[in-house]
């Protein structure tokens, strides 16, 4: 699992290690985009497991990938330079990690004869398409370097699948939240601001909406993709087919916290899409995917995790 010490990667690891027979290698560079200590906390309990190994390394360097000496059956590629807004100020850096880094990993898979490659793509590739809910066949016009880097990586996957027989499954993930969520993401930032009684900067008027997907549901989709063997290349939405506006989200988090948010308004940021909404019929058909966790339940589980944290939020 690349990016295995991060939010989704550590939740996926928990699931895999709970099932007999899996051996997990976490490959992560502990990037300083957010606290490396938080990532170390994410994986601390795994380090005592005999079927778990942590390798500190960067997908951008072939020499680091050579640290992986074990026979690998499946790559789950979650590592990325994250964040739509930051990608606008550093488009070259985002392409270097997200596109070129993915190509390094595909070369590694080709050379090691690894035939199952799961790639974490993003709902951001849809841009501002108004054809809701979004289907995988939608014509794509990404509006940020981050989104573009994810889409170009999907294309790379098709090339390597076609030429080298690697089964490449691009999972377009829709706004994932839950325990261990990155501190820069909206639900975590908003919850943190409310608890600390600090102002939260809302971009726009709060009418933008997102298809929020609880992390356990996302992990269910990834687990099914790990075991998928029917076709050699697929692009699959992993979402919830339910969206709420940011104003509605604020109200829901206020209920969980029992406190009112202090909101300041800022202009809409370049690169932010207005709405997201997944059609997950393909995931249901190919992966037997069906989200199980509603937003109210998911926020309560996030709150429980947040309040039990030992690492500074």
Short description:
By secondary structure, the chain is an alpha/beta fold. It has eleven helices and twelve strands. Strands 3-4-5-10 form a four-stranded parallel sheet, with helices on both faces. The protein has a two-stranded parallel sheet with strand order 1-2. A two-stranded parallel ribbon has the order 6-9.
Kindly name the structural category.
Answer: alpha/beta
Through-space gap between termini: 24 Å
Beta-strand residue fraction:
15-25%
Helix content: 25-40%
Low-confidence stretches: none
Helix-strand string: HEHEHEHHEHEEHEEEHEEHEHH
Give the rounded overall mean pLDDT.
96
Strand order across the biggest sheet?
3-4-5-10
Specify the biggest β-sheet.
4 strands, parallel
Task: Tell me how many strands there are.
Answer: 12
Give the C-alpha Rg: 19 Å
* Count of runs of 4 or more consecutive helical residues: 11
Shape: globular
Account of the protein in words:
The protein is α/β, with parallel strands linked by helices. Strand 1, helix 2 and strand 2 form a beta-alpha-beta unit. Helix content is 40%, strand content 17%. The chain contains eleven helices and twelve strands. It starts with 6 loop residues before the first helix and ends in a 6-residue tail after the last helix. Helix 1 packs across helix 8 and helix 5 runs parallel beside helix 6. Strands 3-4-5-10 form a four-stranded parallel beta sheet, sandwiched between helices. The chain has a two-stranded parallel ribbon with strand order 1-2.
């Amino acid at each position: 699992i690349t990016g295995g010490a991060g939010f989704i990667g550590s939740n996926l690891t928990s699931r895999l290690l709970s099932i007999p027979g899996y051996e997990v290698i976490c490959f992560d560079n502990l990037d300083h985009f957010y606290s490396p200590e938080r990532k170390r906390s994410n994986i601390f309990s795994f380090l005592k497991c005999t079927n778990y190994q942590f390798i500190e390394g960067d997908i951008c360097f072939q020499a680091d990938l050579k640290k992986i000496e074990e026979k690998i059956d499946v790559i789950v590629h979650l590592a990325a330079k994250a964040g739509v807004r930051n990608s606008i100020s550093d488009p070259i850096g985002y392409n270097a990690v997200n596109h070129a880094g993915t190509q390094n990993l595909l070369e590694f898979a080709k050379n090691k004869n690894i035939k199952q490659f799961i790639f974490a793509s993003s709902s951001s590739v849809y841009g501002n398409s108004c054809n809701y809910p979004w289907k995988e066949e939608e014509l794509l016009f990404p509006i940020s370097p981050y989104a573009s880097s994810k889409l170009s990586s999907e294309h790379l996957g098709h090339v390597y699948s076609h030429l080298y027989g690697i089964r490449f499954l691009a999972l377009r993930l829709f706004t994932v939240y839950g325990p261990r969520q990155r501190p820069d993401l909206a639900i975590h930032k908003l919850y943190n601001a409310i608890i600390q009684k600090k102002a939260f900067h809302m971009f726009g008027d709060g009418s933008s909406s997102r298809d929020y997907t609880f992390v356990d549901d996302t992990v269910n989709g990834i687990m099914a993709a790990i075991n998928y063997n029917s076709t050699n290349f697929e692009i699959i939405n992993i979402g919830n087919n339910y969206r709420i506006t940011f104003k509605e989200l604020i109200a829901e988090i206020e209920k969980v916290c029992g406190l009112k948010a202090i909101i300041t308004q800022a202009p809409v940021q370049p690169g932010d899409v207005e709405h997201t909404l997944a059609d997950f019929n393909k995931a249901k058909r190919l992966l037997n995917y069906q989200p199980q966790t509603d937003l109210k339940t998911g926020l309560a589980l996030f709150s429980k995790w947040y309040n039990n944290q030992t690492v500074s939020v």
